[in-house]
């Protein structure tokens, strides 16, 4: 049981780390001489511009920012609630509250990545000329990590739902 508990804790911490990296790092959309994330646009890896009201799809990017931050916060809260429930729950009870919060984190990261996936073309086409970006590019590793974090938080939420406190 101790090995299972260590695996669950490590899996949850990994999920939180993936969410932090996906939220913070500048690699949601990358090209030869530019990179774009939910916070800024960088050209030549040195000239970075913060995404603000001048950005054409600013409200869309705000939605992505907000849901990624919320998913990261919920994942951390779920971890602390799990630790509290680990010592407070009676034997045989399930970690339902932890599961619900982790699944809400899963939902938030899915919403953020889905919005970005759906609106990516509009976001980059409208802002390409403004930021002097070359055409083309591809999804970066932060975007991929967001989808991996979605899967990890979903699996973690299901594990907590199934898990019972045993001796």
From TrEMBL:
Mode of membrane association: Multi-pass membrane protein
Cited InterPro entries: EMP-2 (IPR003933), PMP-22/EMP/MP20-like (IPR050579), PMP22/EMP/MP20/Claudin (IPR004031), PMP22_EMP_MP20 (IPR004032)
Signal peptide as annotated in the record: 1-16
GO cellular component: apical plasma membrane; Golgi membrane; membrane raft; nucleus; perinuclear region of cytoplasm
Main location: membrane
Membrane-spanning residues: 63-83, 95-116, 141-163
Keyword vocabulary terms for this entry: Cell membrane, Cytoplasm, Golgi apparatus, Membrane, Nucleus, Signal, Transmembrane, Transmembrane helix
GO BP terms in the entry: actin filament organization; actin-mediated cell contraction; apoptotic process; bleb assembly; blood vessel endothelial cell migration; cell-matrix adhesion; embryo implantation; positive regulation of cell population proliferation
Domain of life: Eukaryota
Sample GO molecular function, one term: integrin binding
Subcellular location: Apical cell membrane; Cytoplasm, Perinuclear region; Golgi apparatus membrane; Membrane raft
Similarity section: Belongs to the PMP-22/EMP/MP20 family.
Role summary: Functions as a key regulator of cell membrane composition by regulating proteins surface expression. Also, plays a role in regulation of processes including cell migration, cell proliferation, cell contraction and cell adhesion.
Quaternary structure annotation from Swiss-Prot or TrEMBL: Interacts with PTK2; regulates PTK2 activation and localization. Interacts with ITGB3; regulates the levels of the heterodimer ITGA5-ITGB3 integrin surface expression. Interacts with P2RX7 (via C-terminus). Interacts with ITGB1; the interaction may be direct or indirect and ITGB1 has a heterodimer form.
Protein name, per record: Epithelial membrane protein 2
Organism: Saimiri boliviensis boliviensis
Originating gene: EMP2
């Amino acid at each position: 049981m101790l090995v299972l508990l260590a695996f669950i804790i490590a899996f949850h911490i990994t999920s939180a780390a993936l969410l932090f990296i996906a939220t913070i790092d500048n690699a949601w959309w990358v090209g030869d001489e530019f990179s774009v994330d939910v916070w800024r646009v960088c050209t030549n890896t040195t000239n970075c511009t913060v995404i603000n009201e001048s950005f054409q799809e600013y409200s869309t990017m705000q939605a992505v920012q907000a849901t990624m931050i919320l998913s990261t916060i919920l994942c951390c809260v779920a971890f602390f609630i799990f630790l509290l429930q680990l010592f407070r729950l009676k034997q045989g009870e399930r970690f339902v509250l932890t599961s619900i919060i982790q699944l809400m984190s899963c939902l938030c990261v899915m919403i953020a990545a889905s919005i970005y996936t759906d609106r990516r073309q509009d976001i980059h086409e409208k802002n390409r000329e403004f930021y002097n970006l070359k055409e083309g590019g591809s999804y970066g590793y932060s975007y991929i990590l967001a989808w991996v974090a979605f899967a990890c938080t979903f699996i973690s939420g299901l594990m907590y739902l199934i898990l019972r406190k045993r001796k």
